[in-house]
Amino acid sequence: MKKIGFLSFGHWTPSPQSGARSAADVLLQSIDLAVAAEELGADGAYFRVHHFARQLASPFPLLAAVGARTRRIEIGTAVIDMRYENPMYMVEDAGSADLIAGGRLQLGISRGSPEQVIDGWRYFGYQPPEGQTDADMGRRHAEIFYDLLRGQGFAQPNPRPMFPNPPGLLRLEPLSEGLRDRIWWGAGSNATAIWAAKLGMNLQSSTLKNDETGEAFHVQQAAQIRAYRAAWKEAGHAREPRVSVSRSIFALVDDRDRAYFGNGQEEDQIGFIDERTRAIFGRGYAAEPEALIAQLKTDEAIAEADTLLLTVPNQLGVAYNSHVIETILTQIAPALGWR
Fold this sequence. Notes:
Distance between the termini: 6 Å
Largest sheet: 8 strands, parallel, barrel
Shape: globular
Strand order of the largest sheet: 1-2-3-4-5-6-8-13
Radius of gyration: 20 Å
Low-confidence stretches: none
């Protein structure tokens, strides 16, 4: 059994061929898709965060709105780029959104990937300390955020406060109990997956990771997940971790599916996310249901994960993406033992 959700990058473009031509379109359609996914029996509605792009950016207003419109579905990110984040303000935003949602947030965070502008985090007022990289800075912001979610007081109260204070040092409010157990790290390498396990964060492994062995993407990703779980066990955490992978998966069941995605077999792709880092991008899947089921059975990383996020083409509209999700839930997942 697996939890199955969708992951939207929230693209929009003014093109007449797009079903999402503005930021307002994307935001409102994202809420509608989460509501539809919950009605279909999906388990999660997740959103990617990018800056300086025509895509979803500031996540917490959207997460809160989705939380107010739904009752059961998990609501998350995959991922928030921590190089851009003020960890203290983020604790307040996350706590508020989680309380509105009734404790359903699943926040994926990460050191981030290459963005639309050079060193975009500088425009947000952040700069790595001397001798550190922007990746170090992102991980440090994540550590502060994760530690603050413990809810321990740290700030000295004003002896003449405007409002009465509880005794002792003060913490950030509102705090949502249990949210700390629902923080995920988006790991691009085996080393950062192990780092996340030691800290006690869940693992999000996407369709992009450092090419560390030259093997097929799903084989490398499965090895990353096993290394993460071994490190988690060694760390002695009390709870069981969660692990998600994301995939583009389309069952070709009608003429729309074949027109959009029936153009042939996809393969892993090799590229460079910066001048030093060779990366491997995982293939997508698009086939008639019987062939699709056979292909997915061979994906080692999906087999290792407890949660699968289906990346959706949000510019094709809520109705079509609901169809994509429903087809996977009803025709593919049962045949694979996911439902």
